[in-house]
Amino acid sequence: MSVQVQAAPGSRAGTPPGPPVRRSVVALRGLGLVVTLAALVVVALLSVWTGTRGIPFGSTWNLLWNPDGSEASVIIHDYRIPRTLLALLVGMALGLSGALMQSLTRNPLADPGLLGVSLGASTGVVVAIGFFGIASARGYLWFAFLGAAAASVLVFVLGSAGRSLATPDRLVVAGAAVTAVLYAFNSAVLLLHPRAFDSFRFWTVGSLAGRDTEIVLIVLPFVVVGLLLALGLAPSLNALAMGDQMGRALGVNVGRTRTLGAVAVMLLCGAATAAAGPIGFVGLVVPHVARFVVGPDQRWLFAYSVLLAPVLLIGSDVLGRVLGAPGEIQVGIVTAFLGAPLFIALCRRRKLVML
Questions:
Q1: Model pTM?
Q2: What Cα–Cα distance (Å) separates residue 108 from each residue in 57, 282, 320?
Q3: pLDDT, tens digit (0-9, with 9 covering 90-100), for 209-266
């Protein structure tokens, strides 16, 4: 007895229905990226429009493209646009470094600070303020970045000590050890230098205020290199998600991938933390939101994280300016209030897994 299988309309006999379904999934994901990009443009325009000085939206739009040297034009081009661009760069860096950290360590609770990068940057700022008397964001930017780089290198060296490679577990343990030592050092310096504590507490809350175009230009190359490096690692990380042995069988150089990934995290998180201070929950929550939307494919996960994170950060900055008018609430406080409930909702809605 033979069974005849009738081909689906519009398809050849014997052709599985998978490819059309896959094409529709890819199209939906691409459409989602376009929608997210549109949301990013909207919040960026709101960021340029919103501020202590009320400027009508029509005038803001006109001055955005036709600066005339007026007071409103100076406010828009010298303060609000650099602030928005910095929020864009910092958001992209935090979102992608968080997704990369979770992929490298296969830990759904990993964030950019897990390798000691954030606290390394804090240590650089403490040294700059406590020992050199530097109190401006432009002055301690390089100290913060050097501190983040030194902490990252130290964690990777400790995680690679011995004959074995830097496995995710070893990196996490090394990061926890370095973080504890740096935290103790920072506490000692701040207790011995009360003036340093007064300046440091404004930086550690996380803020985008007072940053100018020069800081944006300093941070830009580090973020761009980190972005390109992380996005290039996405196919290799897809293979490593199935385990190191399977990754090697598929031709992935495990040690090289983890080393380049650690470098990308250091560049992205170091630059973002140095420029805006330690802003929490962005690098932790955004990758989970992206994973909830597109699944575990690192290529799509990274792409969505790069766009969703600045939407959250710029939106939080705008919300802080609106709620705190005529002053403002620092963006690090707003992201904590928004990110914590969102993360709890994600935990309750689905099990936090990497695959």
A1: 0.85
A2: 41, 14, 28
A3: 878 888 899 899 999 999 999 999 999 988 888 777 887 888 888 888 888 988 898 8
Length of the chain: 355
Residue 229: Cβ within 10 Å count = 18
Give CA torsion, residues 65, 69, 72, 73, to 10 deg: 30
Assign 148 to helix, strand or coil.
helix
SS3 175: helix
End-to-end Cα, the chain, rounded Å? 43
Q: Is 84 helix (H, G, I), strand (E, B) or coil?
A: helix
Superfamily of domain covering 70-349: ABC transporter involved in vitamin B12 uptake, BtuC (1.10.3470.10)
* Distance set, CA 346 to CA 32, 40, 232, 285, 310 (Å): 19, 22, 28, 9, 19
Q: What is the largest CA-CA distance in the chain?
A: 90
CA angle 189, 137, 266 (to 5 degrees): 75
